[in-house]
Design brief:
60% of the residues lie in helices and 4% in strands. By secondary structure, it is mainly alpha-helical. Residues 111-236 form the Palmitoyltransferase DHHC domain.
């Protein structure tokens, strides 16, 4: 039964993408055909400098937001999350020899092999039952992008949600007056080409998307700040309870602090300046997704506790029914 559901989710992926693009673009049309003319009708009629400047700034800002939404959504779909196929390995080769040696040393000490695809399974990788493949730094499978969220596209996915939430808030704030007007069906005057029912639907949809995606986006930023994936969060939550019951201190081996976690996730501060996070351009993640640096606090733990932590993470990787969470 689970396999049937997985196949259905995978097959319906393109349909989800078409629906998502259609709904987003409907809201875009509602803004430019109704909300923008309504809020700038005086600027369109008068020729004041400040009015024209405000209108130009609004157009540039909204076009930037629309482009960022579509760019990051496209990159979330088209970017492979990373796996253990030859293509993924060649595309993700790390330039650091030290990382390769450390990765080899850990693999020799704690060998990991996927029970489903029978390929080597690096740390933080999990098998997705929908895609039927191991995914590097697996977070979850998202049917709305017909793809897994993993090492190479997690950044695009988070930025897509960020721009979607901000745009939804912007639409709700500046579109409430046209929304109220479109509900007045007793008034036959409607000087816009965009139908009233669609305007009402777009506004309500923006509220719903803002709330739903806002909660999901906040959750992912919490995971970014704490250097976790969705799968790792539940495992770490359990391990915290075990460590507390044994009088030990739990340490997330990948947690370098809020600021450094942000820098590492968005790959800014070294090769890419901080402001590139606002650029709708392709930015690869840091590293190859098969080896991850560990914080100093982890190495300060007793050797036995370090080994238990690594083996516990490996046990979670062996779960065969990892699905969209």
């Amino acid at each position: 039964m689970a396999q049937v559901v997985d196949r259905a989710i995978f097959s319906a992926g393109p349909v989800f993408i078409i629906i998502a693009v259609g709904l987003v673009d409907m809201c875009v049309l509602a803004y430019y055909l109704i909300v923008f003319p309504y809020n700038h009708h005086l600027s369109l009629q008068e020729s004041t400098f400040l009015g024209k400047l405000s209108m130009v700034f609004t157009i540039l800002f909204t076009l930037y937001m629309v482009y960022c939404i579509h760019f990051h959504y496209y990159m979330s779909i088209r970017t492979r999350p990373g796996g253990m196929t030859n293509l993924d390995i060649e595309a993700g080769e790390d330039e650091s020899t030290n990382h390769g040696l450390l990765e080899y040393e850990e693999s020799a000490q704690y060998p990991k092999t996927c029970k489903k695809c029978h390929l080597p399974k690096p740390e933080r990788a999990h098998h997705c039952s929908v895609c039927n493949a191991c995914v590097l730094r697996f977070d979850h499978h998202c049917p709305w992008i017909h793809n897994c969220v993993g090492h190479y596209n997690h950044r695009y996915f988070v930025l897509f949600m960020t721009y979607m939430v901000l745009s939804a808030i912007y639409f709700v704030v500046f579109g409430w007056r046209p929304f109220i007007i479109c509900l007045d069906i007793l008034n036959p005057e409607w000087p816009y080409y965009f139908p009233r029912p669609l305007m009402a639907f777009a506004y309500i949809l923006s509220i719903c998307m803002g709330l739903a995606l806002g909660a999901l986006c906040a959750w992912h930023y919490y995971l970014v700040l704490t250097a976790q994936t969705t799968v790792e969060f539940y495992n770490n939550y359990y391990e915290k309870g075990v460590a507390k019951s044994q009088g030990e201190v739990f340490v997330n081996m990948y947690d370098f602090g809020y600021v450094e976690n942000i820098r590492r996730f968005f790959n800014i501060g070294d090769k890419y300046p901080w402001y590139t996070v606002f650029y709708p351009i392709p930015v690869p993640p840091r590293g190859n997704g098969r080896y991850f640096d560990r914080c100093q606090e982890f190495y300060m733990l007793p050797a036995a506790q370090q080994e238990d932590t690594i083996l516990a993470n490996q046990a979670v990787q062996d779960l065969e029914d990892i699905k969209d969470l």
